[in-house]
Structure formats: structure tokens, C-alpha cells
Write the C-alpha cells for this entry.
Amino acid sequence: MDSAFIIEKSVVIVTVFAITMIMAMYSTWAERKVAAFLQDRVGPNRAGWGGLLQPLADGMKLFAKEEFEPNTPNKFLFFVGPAIAMSTALMTSAVIPWGDQLEVFGRTVQLQATDIDVSLLYIFGVVSVGVYGIMIGGWASNNKFSLMGAVRAASQMVSYEIAMGLSMIALLMMTGTLSLKEISMQQSGMDWNVFYQPLGFLIFLICAFAETNRTPFDLAECESELIGGYHTEYSSMKMGFYLFAEYANMFISSTVIAVLYFGGYNYPGMSWAVENWGVNAANIIGIGALFIKLCFFIFFFMWVRWTIPRFRYDQLMHLGWKILIPLSIVNIIITGICILAFK
Amino acid sequence: MSPILITFYCLAAITLATAFLTIYSKNPIHSAIYLVLCFFSIAGHYLLFNAQFLAIVHIIVYSGAIMILFLFTIMLMNLNKENEVHKPRITRLGAIVVFVVTSIVLTTIFINSKPIAGEYPTTGEDFQSIKVLGKILLNEYMVPFEFASILLLVAMIGVVLLSKKEKPGK
């Protein structure tokens, strides 16, 4: 392992980290702007042009606010909760292929922090661990509303993980690999997986909403019943971490949807661009294409949030266990039959 | 010492420490969290063998599913020190006897067993890749694999039956 390799990987990792942070930051701004647009308002427009400095101002405010700790015997766990939520939100981006490759100083740089054989399972693992941040934080708050919020959030995430995993299995049967890099490569041109797996995509999208605790599945933060949900007792930057983790998760799930179903960094005519414009130019356009796709999904998350009201809790569980899971099993069977019939 | 050996010792220390803390901590939630950490360090051991699939599946199944349900139940049961059942002295004595006998049995097995750590022939096949793993599971170990899944199915149906007891007056 030469030192250039370590430098290369460090640069990629730090860049991905920075981009995730910036995207999460500006998602908060975009959320307000989209909400304002949908409700016929202006939205933040005081700090900077069009309110572009608003996220920085919010961050400053959260850092500078007084830290208030509830009377809890579990000070350490209270502190660990937001840390787990934030780190798991950031860890997922390690296996996402942001582009194919770049040639910098005569080296071929893979635009991915690591290409492990089981990267899709890795994402699942990290997502399932993310529940701990919510549960530990909610329990350590020593407040029954926080606990109920945490239990709701966790049970919702656990239930929807099953349907998500099953919809994933149908996709895997088609691609035959768990590596996100190979899945992206298979979709070159307009050969996107969404055309073969429309039902699987729909299930995955719904589950992504539930996993990120966004409306219409944000029962964990049901203000009228549960105050603020699992982060009721949190203040200052710990609270900021929970909110930030939600936006980081949203960014990552949009990216995963774009990579799995919408071709990732591929765009029509990419191989032509590689031949005529060179590897670097073609791949920079590819990164741009991936960002356009994922920004659309981030917008979609917000669009849904400000359009559809929240489910009732029993409706949520009904949808998860009695509709999505059987549907995804049917999807697996259909995929199997199609593979047998056409290949 | 090679970096891998150092990593192994650190992981082993974490595994043992968290396993002991699981037993010794008074608070059941702390116990559960230590157990989660223990599972994570075991996944680290798998990664040292380069068994990525096993490590990730271990995390998904044990830390991501089973322990979360455990934490759930413990949190909702609201276990306090006051309503903990006090065990009589004879139970403790019995526990000690059982523990000693089990450890004697395990140590004798450990001493008498002859660990086979022969050289494996390199076939050039990557046994970490899921493709090879799947082929082996569904060819050589097909029957045990299917039996395991039937066992899980039976357990699942049993749980549903147990939790859906007939309501009185029906």
C-alpha cells in the first residue's frame, strides 16, 4: 500500500464527508424554500441572497445556545444518542460510487471511498444500527414522551426495513451482485433498473420515507401527541445533530435510490463522451448527472412532506406489514418468473 | 507485532470486557448496550478473517434486529430495582455448582481436543465472495440450509400461535 493510495483515499473520503455535510446543510434551506413555495410564501430571505446564508446562521445559533441537560441518571448515554445518529448517517456514504473514475496526475482515482463486495448489505447494516441513536437518546432522556417517541420511531424503522430488504432482493436477483459499483455499471446508457423493477422501486421509495422518519411517516415527532418525539429533551447542538442526521439520511437515501434504480452516474451517451471528451470531462458530467437525480429525490421528499398529512399509527403498521411486505414478496416471485422466462 | 495482531488483541479485549460488563452491570439496559458492543467486536473478528459477508450479516441480524427488539422489551417493561425478584440462597448455590461443573467439562474438552489447523490447499477461488458462498450453501450444504429455514419458519408460526391466544368468552 503506497502513500499515494492513502492520500487518494483520504481526499475522496474528506470530499464525500464535506459534500454530505453541505448537502445536509442546504437541504434545511431548500426545505424551507420548498415549504414556502408550496404554501405561497417567500421563505427565508434575510441572511444572504435568497436566504442562502440561513443554514450558517442556524448552525451558529445551535452552537451558541445554552446546553440544557434533563435530570437523568444516564448522562453518558444521553450524550451518545445524537453521536450515534450523526455518525451512522455519515457512514453510509462510504460505499456509494459517485462516479466511475478520474485521472489525476497519471493515477486512476476511483470515485468511491471503498468498493466492498457487500456494499448494499453494508448500507443495510448501518441503517439498522442507526435505530440505536434514536432509542438510546429517547430512553436516556428520562422522559416518557421521549421514550414513546423513540419506541415509535424504532418500531417503524424495524418494520419497514423488512419490506425494504425484500424489495432489494428482487433487484439483486436481477443484477446478480451486491456491489453498488457493478450495479451502476450494469445500468450504463438508459438501461435503468427502474424500468425492470417499477414495483420494487415504489416499495423502496416508501420504505425510504419511513426509514428517514419523514412525513407522512414522522409519527415519532407527532407534535400534538408526543411534543417533539425522541428529541424532546435535547437542546443546542445535540438537538441540531438529530435534525442534521435526518437531513443527511435523506441525502443518502436519495443517493441510494438514484444509484440503485436510476442509473447512478450514468447518462445517455456517456461512452461516447468518454471517447470524445476524455475520461475526466465525461465523469465530471456523470457526477453532475448523479447530483441532478439525487436533488430531484430530495425535492421529492420535501414535496411529499408539505403535501400529504401524517398517517395514524395503526395505518402505518398496517401499510408496512400487511401491504408492503406481501407486495414485495409478490414482486420477488414475479421477478423470478421473468428471469426464468426471458434469460 | 503486526498491525493485524494488535487489532486482534484490542478486539479480543473489547469482546471480553463487554461480555463481562453485560453480566455485571446492574441496569438491564446497560447490559443490553454492552451486549451490542460485544456483537460489534465479534463482527470485527470476522472482518479480520476477511469474512465481510458474515460480519455484515452478523451486524444486521444481531445488532440491527434482535438486540433492538430486546432493548424495546426492556425499555417498555420498566424494570426497577424495587420489583426485582429476590433469589433464595439455594438458587445461588445451585448456580455456582452448575457453573463449576460446566467449566470443568468445557476445560476437559478443550484440553483433550486436537485442533486441526492444517494447511488448506489454495484453489484460487475467492471464498469471501457471495457468489461462491451461495453456490456452496445451495449445493453442498443444501439440506442443512433448508432445514435451518424450516426451523425458523416453525419458530415464527409458533410465536404467532403463542401470542394470539384465544380470548376468554369466545
About this structure: Residues 261 and 281 of chain A are 24 Å apart (CA to CA).
